[in-house]
Amino acid sequence: MLTNVYHHKIEVVSDNIDVQGHVNNLVYLKWMQDAAVAHSLEKGWGQEQYDQLRCGWVVRSHQIEYRWPAFEKDSLEIVTWVESFRRASCVRKYEVHRLSDQKVLAIAETNWAFLNLDKRIPAKVPQEIILAFQADGATI
C-alpha cells in the first residue's frame, strides 16, 4: 500500500477547454507538473533546496492514457506518487479523478531525470530525497 501519495485539487476553468468542449490534453501535462511540484514542496524539497544542491528534475518522457473527458466546472483531483527511483531518475505516477463520480479520467507516468544543473549531466539522486518520497525508507 502506498502511503506517500499526494492529492492535488483542480477546478476546471474555461481556459482549460479546447474547441471540442473538454479539457485540452496539454492541460493535463501542466496539472501533472503542478502536482509533482506541490508534492515536492510538501516533502520539503522546493526550488530553494534544489538550488542549494545545484541539481533539479527534468522530464525525459510522459505516458498518458485518457479515459474520460473533463469539462468546465468539474472538480478534479490529481493523485500522484513516486513509484520508483534509479540512480539518476525516478518514475512518478498519476491518476486524474473527477470528484463528483470518482471516475478515473486519465492515468499517467513521467520519467524524471535528476541533473547537475551546472554541468547539464545526470546526477545521483541524494538519499535524503529518496527517503522523503518513499514510505518504507528503501534505499538504492
User: What portion of the residues fall into strands of 2 or more residues?
Assistant: 35-45%
Radius of gyration from CA coordinates: 16 Å
- Averaging pLDDT over every residue, what do you get? 93
Distance between the termini: 20 Å
Shape: elongated
For the largest beta-sheet, the strand count, sense and barrel status come to: 6 strands, antiparallel
Low-confidence stretches: 136-140
Compressed to H and E, one letter per element, the order equals: EHHEEEEEH
Number of helices: 3
Characteristics of this structure?
six-stranded antiparallel beta sheet, alpha+beta, 140 residues, disordered C terminus, 6 strands, 3 helices, 23% helix
Can you put this structure into words, describing what you see?
This protein is an alpha+beta fold and 140 residues long. It contains three helices and six strands; from the N terminus they run E-H-H-E-E-E-E-E-H. Strands 1, 2, 3, 4, 5 and 6 form a six-stranded antiparallel beta sheet that branches. The protein is elongated. 24% of the residues are buried.
Task: Indicate the topology.
Blueprint: E1 6-11, H1 25-42, H2 47-53, E2 55-66, E3 75-86, E4 89-98, E5 104-116, E6 121-122, H3 127-133
In short:
It is built from 3 helices and 6 strands; from the N terminus they run E-H-H-E-E-E-E-E-H. It has 140 residues and is an alpha+beta fold.
